[in-house]
Amino acid sequence: MATTSKKFRADEINSIVTNVYETLPVTGSLVVDNNNVKSYSHDRYISVYDADPLLASANQLMDISYCNNFDVVAFPDNQVAKERSVMYNQFAQVLVGHDTDGSRKTFQVASGSSSEEVVGFYAISLPRYMVKDKIDSDSFKFEFSGDSDSHTVTISGSINSNSPAGGYYELQSTSRTGRNSGLLFVEAGVMILSIEALAGLTVGSVDIFNELKSNLPTKGEAYDAFRQVFDKLTFKNTVEVNSTIYTCQVSFGDFNYSNNPTFTDASGSIRNSTDKKTYITGIGLHGPAGELLATAKLSQPKEKTSAKNYLFNVRLDY
Fold first, then answer.
1. Is residue 280 within 8 Å of residue 298, measured between CB atoms?
2. Which tens digit of pLDDT belongs to each residue from 286-308?
3. Distance CA 188, CA 184 (A)
4. Calpha distance 195→209 (Å, rounded)
5. Dihedral angle of Cα 169, 138, 230, 213, to the nearest 10 degrees
6. pLDDT tens digits, residue range 171-191?
7. Cα torsion at 211, 212, 213, 219 (round to 10°)?
8. pTM tops 0.90, yes or no
9. Phi first, then psi: what are they for 176, rounded to 5°?
10. What are the phi and psi torsion angles at 122 (to 5°)?
11. Which candidate, 254, 255, 253, 276, places its Cα nearest to that of 264?
């Protein structure tokens, strides 16, 4: 008797995970152009767009925040210093979390056999539409330069997983060989770039690192300094595609019958004809109760007779 449906065996259902990547470069010309930057009176961050932010077609590329715990110690009565310390605390709470006693953790990077706190940093926050599921760490590269030299920041070491915001890597700069320059939170899409990565970098004969450490930049000055040295940020985003592949085997005796009225005579009996043919045009995936869950259409009908068998692979992505 010809069958109208078949149950899958366990070995006919297989799950796979595929990563899809997209390369996204952000050039310094976009960051340095004042027409692409939106500033705020609170000075806690600036937003960079790929066009004038007043245009409806403009896409946000990143937010840049300057955070520094040192400022609030050196300038305890300064409101700007307090705001930058508040930003430090906010990023720390989200990205590194709290200790068992409830105290806020700090950003730590390796320093020889111990670790040191990233006291001052630029936080580059990327929007979700650019990051997707996460940043591909191997492709991440941040390039910056001063008057006479250029440097590149990439990941260093293996992934760390003790963050409430997901996995993160330490960063290594060519200008600080053997020392770390910040952190990259690949799932949150945030780069914490230590201002010490800018050590020795001069713009117009001004040492940016020393200027940030010894003086309290006024509103906008810290961002202007960073935008001047920004050359290029390149990375691949990652989309994780989960797939289930169903192997549908159509044997010689399967699906050789049709509901077409020409297959039966006036009494309802199946006609005994050697030239009867059926055509497979689609495959339906049904649940335990027989409910239709998904359908797959063939590009062209496949002729089916008792002398033919087929093997179809149906892939369901989600």
1. yes
2. 988 889 999 999 999 988 877 88
3. 9
4. 6
5. 20
6. 998 766 666 789 999 999 999
7. 120
8. no
9. -135, 60
10. -100, 130
11. 276
